[in-house]
């Protein structure tokens, strides 16, 4: 980390630590009647207010104290987006313990590995995950109790889970008299493991300071642009990089919160959008596919939806156009990663872009965008020399800032930084005026005859073809060129397109040598625990495949 010097004259403002508890206290005091609406695992809709949430979070904080959970100790959750999960966000971090959200889409062994690595003391989980917890509970070495997030009536009569407790019992048996403790803002607040597509998952340990700063930055107009007039539905799960910080930023501005629970299919999400007048949402592209299909197939419209942030993987331009032109929904393309809390960049137009044609504006909006204040970025070559911002030269993307990782939790290799910068593993270009565009993840770049071909461009073009639902491009072995691009396509239901047509579709859109050598049609692409296409799995599937050009 960079060195700082102490000035002989220090500022004379109050020294008040930036703590997560201050967010829910603020929401209670100034937006106490704003609503949190949740589709519950039980199937019904639950509604209450920030004031109620704050009260119950204090009750759970008392329960944790009763368990003997100490500052800095980890408490895990395995839960959907819902009000009880939100209470835990504040109860655990606010009391000084560390909120460890676990992705339930991981395998039971991976979850047990993470729980043991984090040394979780308690594990809170939704009813949906009872069978999953039964599989791995016995392998958790440090967990003293498992809390089922339901009421007494829904507790199983018998269970293999040791020391199984009931969430609503904890609420009933604990007082709401609780003072959030004050402590150093650099104390650990929460822990997220990367999905570990290669090797074991690694933990990013956030602090109260990093979380509060990230929340403040994320609500700015050219980022999420959130206010007390919004109703926000986080489609991105609370177990995936803290739902991009929305459980903090939404109460911070006093917006209404709408939690979808486990029902993430297009129909259920659409219903909630309309019933609760949702104006803002955020998620990875794959979930929007389901919603857009449902809306298109049923000739529906959005009556209140105004803006969505799409990130986690590249937003296909066709999806952005559909949202913008067909439904009048503004799309903010954003980029980040678990190691960055996750927000790095967001793409919006500037005053001098407003007179451009729609096509020109669209081509800017398709980029991943500008660094959010607090984040700095640069692109470098393999020797670490900085590369020009000309919108063409691509290089390894490095970032730094107060909510970017310095080292992984309990990692033996220590500092992961290169001269104070975090290497993201992404390859990108940056334009003269600072718009960053991801070309690829460095491990997914297709290396053809010593030159690089970015897979995202090839996928985006394929996905503008009317018959293509989803496309992914990988490098496949070629005896002359090392690798050549191969396109793997999921067709839209009832749509037809041939391999030759798709290859021809690239004509005039890219350099000729970038054109995929082959196309394979599949029923579905392999998706990882965070809804992203697993390219390493695809490369395994096509290992040894003989290209027609080989
Ligand atoms: P994991 O892939 O392990 O779930 P993250 O969710 O942290 O981890 O993923 C971060 C990565 O996702 C980035 O390094 C980048 O490769 C990719 N990514 C995120 N947002 C975008 C985007 N808007 N466009 C392209 N790639 C993105």
UniProtKB/TrEMBL annotation:
Q: Does the keyword Ligase apply?
A: yes
**Residue span, AMP-dependent synthetase/ligase domain:** 33-409
One Gene Ontology MF term: ligase activity
Q: Does the keyword Magnesium apply?
A: no
BP-aspect Gene Ontology terms: fatty acid metabolic process
Q: Which UniProt keywords apply?
A: Fatty acid metabolism, Ligase, Lipid metabolism
Q: Which residues form the AMP-binding enzyme C-terminal domain?
A: 458-532
Looking up Gene3D superfamilies in the UniProt record yields:
3.30.300.30, N-terminal domain of ligase-like (3.40.50.12780)
Similarity annotation: Belongs to the ATP-dependent AMP-binding enzyme family.
The protein here is known as Fatty-acid--CoA ligase
């Amino acid at each position: 980390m960079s060195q700082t010097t102490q000035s002989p004259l220090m500022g004379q403002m109050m020294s008040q630590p930036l703590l997560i508890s201050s967010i829910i206290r603020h929401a209670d005091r100034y937006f106490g009647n704003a609503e949190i609406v949740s589709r519950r695992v039980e199937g019904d809709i639950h509604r209450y207010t920030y004031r109620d949430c704050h009260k119950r979070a204090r009750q759970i904080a008392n329960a944790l104290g009763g368990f003997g959970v100490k500052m800095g100790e980890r408490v895990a959750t395995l839960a959907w987006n819902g009000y009880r999960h939100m209470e835990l966000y504040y109860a655990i971090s606010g009391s000084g313990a560390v909120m460890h959200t676990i992705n339930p889409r991981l395998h039971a062994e991976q979850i047990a590995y993470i729980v043991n690595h984090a040394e979780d003391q308690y594990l809170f989980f939704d009813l949906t995950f009872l069978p999953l917890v039964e599989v791995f509970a016995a392998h958790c070495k440090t967990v003293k109790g498992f809390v089922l997030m339901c009421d007494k009536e829904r507790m199983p009569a018998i269970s293999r889970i040791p020391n199984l407790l009931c969430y609503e019992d904890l609420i009933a048996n604990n007082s709401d008299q609780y003072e959030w403790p004050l402590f150093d803002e650099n104390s650990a607040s929460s822990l997220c493991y990367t999905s570990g597509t290669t090797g074991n998952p690694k933990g990013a340990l956030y602090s109260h300071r990093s979380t509060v700063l990230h929340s403040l930055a994320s609500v700015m107009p050219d980022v999420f642009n959130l206010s007390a007039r919004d109703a926000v539905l986080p489609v991105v799960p609370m177990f995936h990089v803290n739902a991009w910080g929305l459980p903090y930023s939404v109460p911070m501005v006093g917006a209404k919160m709408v939690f979808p629970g486990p029902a993430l299919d297009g129909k259920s999400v659409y219903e909630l959008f309309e019933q609760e007048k949702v104006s803002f949402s955020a998620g990875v592209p794959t979930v929007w596919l389901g919603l857009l299909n449902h809306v298109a197939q049923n000739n529906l419209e959005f009556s209140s939806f105004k803006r969505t942030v799409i990130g986690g993987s590249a937003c296909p331009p066709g999806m952005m156009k559909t949202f913008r032109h067909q439904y009048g929904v503004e799309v903010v393309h954003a980029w980040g990663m678990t190691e960055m809390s996750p927000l790095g960049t967001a793409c919006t137009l500037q005053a001098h872009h407003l007179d451009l044609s729609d096509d020109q504006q669209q081509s800017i909006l398709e980029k991943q965008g500008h660094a959010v204040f607090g984040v700095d970025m640069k692109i470098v070559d393999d020797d670490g020399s900085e590369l020009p911002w000309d919108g063409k030269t691509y290089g390894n993307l490095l970032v730094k800032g107060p909510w970017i990782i310095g080292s992984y939790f309990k990692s033996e290799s220590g500092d992961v930084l290169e001269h104070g910068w975090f290497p993201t593993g992404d390859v990108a270009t940056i334009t003269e005026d600072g718009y960053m565009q991801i070309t690829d993840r460095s491990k997914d770049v297709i290396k053809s005859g010593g030159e690089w071909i970015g897979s995202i461009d090839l996928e985006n073009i394929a996905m503008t073809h009317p018959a293509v639902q989803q496309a992914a491009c990988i490098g496949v072995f070629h005896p002359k060129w090392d690798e050549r691009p191969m396109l793997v396509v999921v067709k839209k239901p009832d749509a037809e397109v041939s391999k030759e047509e798709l290859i021809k579709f690239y004509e005039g859109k890219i350099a000729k040598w970038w054109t995929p050598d082959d196309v394979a049609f599949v029923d579905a692409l392999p998706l990882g625990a965070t809804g992203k296409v697993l390219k390493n799995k695809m490369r395994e599937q096509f290992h040894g495949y003989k290209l027609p050009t080989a």
